[in-house]
């Protein structure tokens, strides 16, 4: 347990230490812990031109990716789960394959496509690119959640007077809420952390997201380790906060598929 | 408000699930579809409810055609085997749901829910959620959700099969009392012959999607039209033996295991003997320790006490044979007995088709 924990947390702790060390001690070891922790790197990062803009981009991209995954994913998942669609298995199988596709395979075609469409270096491009992965994942997971809801509840809903949309609203969504929350969070965190597309499809601070921006911190003559570390810590915070906030819901959501309620 | 099914059929792909040429269920009747699992009885219920669409045929309630109406506009309520309560709603919320969807006023909803709750003894539970209720309480909430809509038809899909035995017996009585109180048509589906016999005004025995026989519980039990119906009802089930039927001038005789029994008076038109299946219910077999003239010698192989009665498994000419006797008779395994059959309680079936033969 301790080994696993230190393995998982080690890099993050190291980063935190680096971020807090004054400039002069950065390359010194010992001391492991800075004698006088300093906030100078954080202040530098937050004050840097464009950092807040980039953070805002990240927020917009991640939020809209989640929104898109829900708006398109929920009705589609409902149809896949409960309307006896022809070719259901094929569709589900394809979705699973899609969500396992390596990202690198799509980068070049998407890059060319977005240039053609003239949307490269826009937030929209990043959102669409993230949705290419988020949507199949969301659809597949949501379909599984919806299938867990007993058929009789759908039938009861219809007898009681619900349309399909009504069943979705009054029966399915309240019951699948833990599942929805965990899918939303996972998509948000995926999009927030995603580097490859964000890096490839953006050119300026107009659309750049945090992971891409951090990678581009490196200056011409020196690498500002302190600032990079501080920015990374800042970029990690929202994910960690969200996780802590919804921890119980995520866990119940992830196990809801395994154990019959 | 009679329910009328005409030429109703449902196919799943090539397979015919249900075929009902014609069936009338009069207003206020407690009507039961009974059959083994996979016989298509639940499909009939789904067709009436509108949860599935018929391949051919019409459904009418009174003079209204139901076919084109969605489930909630058919004036039917459905009680599911799994209860299908909404887990995220309280008991009140579950009862109120169909009324909310029908856009009734808040006051009307409150009043009707409370009426139904007091009818079913749910008033103290209104604020609970389904997971905090026992099986019997859930069952009552499911009933309440059906009653609160004041439907013209109640549809029940094996509503008691998830309950344990004592509770099932109690709910069975409550259902019957409820039917008497409401006076509405109840259409009930079950695989339990005892439930069907004890609850129903009329029973349709269904097998492989077709109604084998339709009639009152007495008719079904005493006058089964074929071997399937005869074997489905009764506990312990009817005995079946291969026998010879001969119609002679002095009467109709059945014979098996080297003995014969006259079952009918003189015959107008004697015919050659034919092979038949002979059926007799265990309660119409009488045992004796003394040798009797028109009786079959048998050996007791198993005694199964059921309180006041005992089910006795006999070996009769190498075949198993069941009889029911009062427990005081005290038969023991291994004992030799003579079994006589009540001649007026014998059923004769065609060996191949299983149809019952009129004598």
What does this 3D model show about the protein?
The complex is a heterodimer of chains A (261) and B (359). Chain A has 261 residues and is mainly α. Chain A has a single domain (50-256), classed as Orthogonal Bundle (MetI-like fold). Helix content of chain A is 75%, strand content 0%. Chain A has eleven helices and no strands. Chain A is elongated and about 70 Å long. Residues 255-261 of chain A have low confidence and may be disordered. Chain B is an alpha+beta fold. Chain B folds into two domains: 3-225, Rossmann fold, CATH 3.40.50; 239-350, OB fold (Dihydrolipoamide Acetyltransferase, E2P), CATH 2.40.50.140. Chain B has eight helices and 20 strands. In chain B, a hairpin with a 2-residue loop joins strand 4 (56-61) and strand 5. In chain B, helix 2 packs across helix 3. The mean pLDDT of chain B is 92. The A-B interface holds A 150, 152-153, 155-156, 158-162, 166, 170-171, 174-175, 261 and B 49-51, 70-72, 76-78, 80-84, 86-88, 97-98, 101-102, 145, 149.
Task: Please give the CATH architecture of the largest domain in chain B.
Answer: 3-Layer(aba) Sandwich
Order of helices and strands of chain A: HHHHHHHHHHH
The coarse overall form of chain B would be elongated
Report the CATH superfamily of the largest domain in chain B: P-loop containing nucleotide triphosphate hydrolases
> Can you tell me the residue ranges of chain B where pLDDT is under 50 for at least 5 consecutive residues?
none
Order of helices and strands of chain B: EEEHEEEHHHEHEHEEHHEEEEEEEEEE
- Head-to-tail CA distance between termini of chain B: 40 Å
Question: How many structural units, i.e. domains of chain A?
Answer: 1
What fraction, in percent, of the residue positions of chain B are helical? Answer: 10-25%
Can you count the helices of chain A?
A: 11
Uncertain residue segments of chain A = 255-261
What fold name goes in the CATH topology slot of the largest domain in chain B?
Rossmann fold
CA-based shape of chain A: elongated
The count of DSSP E runs of length 2 or more, i.e. the number of strands of chain A, is 0
Across the major sheet of chain B, the strand order is 6-7-8-3-9-10
> Largest contact between protein chains?
A-B, 16 and 23 residues
Report the top-level CATH class of the largest domain in chain B.
Answer: Alpha Beta
Q: What structural class do you assign from the helix and strand content of chain A?
A: mainly alpha
Number of helices of chain B: 8
């Amino acid at each position: 347990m301790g080994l696993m924990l230190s393995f998982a947390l080690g890099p993050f702790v190291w980063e935190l230490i680096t971020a807090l060390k004054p400039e002069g001690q950065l390359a010194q070891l010992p001391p492991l812990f800075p004698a006088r922790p300093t906030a100078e790197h954080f202040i530098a990062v937050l004050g840097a031109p464009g950092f807040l803009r980039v953070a805002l981009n990240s927020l917009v991209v991640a939020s809209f990716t989640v929104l898109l995954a829900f708006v398109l994913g929920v009705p589609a998942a409902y149809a896949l789960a409960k309307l006896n669609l022809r070719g259901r298995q094929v569709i589900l199988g394809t979705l699973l394959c899609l969500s396992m596709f390596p990202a690198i395979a799509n980068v070049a075609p998407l890059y060319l496509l977005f240039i053609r469409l003239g949307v490269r270096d826009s937030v929209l491009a990043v959102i669409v690119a993230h949705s290419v992965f988020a949507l199949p994942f969301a659809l597949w997971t949501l379909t599984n959640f919806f299938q867990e809801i007993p058929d009789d509840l759908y039938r009861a809903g219809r007898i009681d007077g619900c349309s399909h949309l009504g069943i979705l609203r009054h029966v399915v969504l309240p019951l699948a809420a833990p599942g929805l929350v965990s899918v939303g969070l996972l998509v948000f965190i995926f999009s927030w952390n995603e580097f490859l597309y964000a890096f490839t499809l953006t050119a300026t601070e107009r659309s750049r997201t945090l992971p891409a921006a951090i990678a581009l911190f490196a200056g011409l003559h020196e690498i500002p380790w302190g600032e990079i570390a501080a920015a990374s810590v800042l970029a990690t915070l929202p994910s960690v906060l969200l996780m802590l906030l919804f921890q119980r819901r995520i866990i119940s959501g992830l196990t809801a598929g395994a154990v019959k309620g | 408000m009679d329910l009328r099914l005409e030429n109703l059929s449902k196919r799943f792909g090539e397979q015919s699930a249900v075929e009902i040429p014609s069936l009338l269920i009069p207003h206020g009747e407690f009507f039961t579809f009974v059959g083994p699992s996979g016989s298509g009885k639940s499909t009939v219920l789904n067709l009436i409810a509108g949860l599935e669409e018929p391949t051919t045929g019409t459904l009418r309630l009174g003079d209204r055609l139901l076919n084109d109406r969605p489930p909630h506009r058919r004036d039917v309520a459905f009680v599911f085997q799994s209860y299908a309560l909404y887990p995220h709603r309280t008991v009140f919320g579950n009862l109120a749901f169909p009324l909310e969807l029908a856009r009734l006023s808040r006051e009307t909803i409150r009043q009707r829910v409370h009426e139904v709750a007091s009818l079913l003894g749910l008033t103290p539970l209104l604020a609970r959620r389904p997971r905090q209720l026992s099986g019997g309480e859930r069952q009552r909430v499911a009933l309440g959700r059906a009653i609160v809509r004041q439907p013209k038809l109640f549809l029940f899909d094996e509503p008691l099969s998830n309950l344990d035995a004592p509770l099932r017996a109690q709910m069975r009585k409550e259902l019957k009392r409820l039917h008497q109180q409401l006076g509405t048509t109840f259409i009930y589906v079950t695989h339990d012959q005892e439930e069907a016999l004890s609850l129903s005004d009329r029973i349709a025995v269904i097998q492989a999607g077709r109604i084998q026989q339709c009639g009152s519980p007495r008719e079904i039990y005493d006058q089964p039209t074929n071997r399937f119906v005869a074997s489905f009802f009764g506990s312990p089930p009817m005995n079946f033996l291969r026998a010879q039927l001969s119609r002679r001038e002095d009467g109709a005789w059945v014979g098996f295991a080297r003995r014969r029994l006259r079952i009918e008076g003189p015959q107008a038109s004697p015919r050659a003997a034919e092979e038949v299946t002979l059926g007799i219910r265990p309660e119409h077999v009488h045992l004796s320790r003394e040798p009797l003239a028109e009786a079959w010698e048998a050996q007791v192989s198993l005694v199964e006490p059921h309180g006041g009665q005992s089910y006795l498994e006999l070996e009769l000419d190498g075949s198993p044979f069941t009889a029911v006797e009062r427990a005081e008779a005290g038969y023991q395994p291994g004992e030799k007995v003579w079994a006589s059959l009540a001649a007026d309680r014998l059923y004769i079936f065609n060996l191949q088709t299983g149809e019952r033969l009129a004598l």
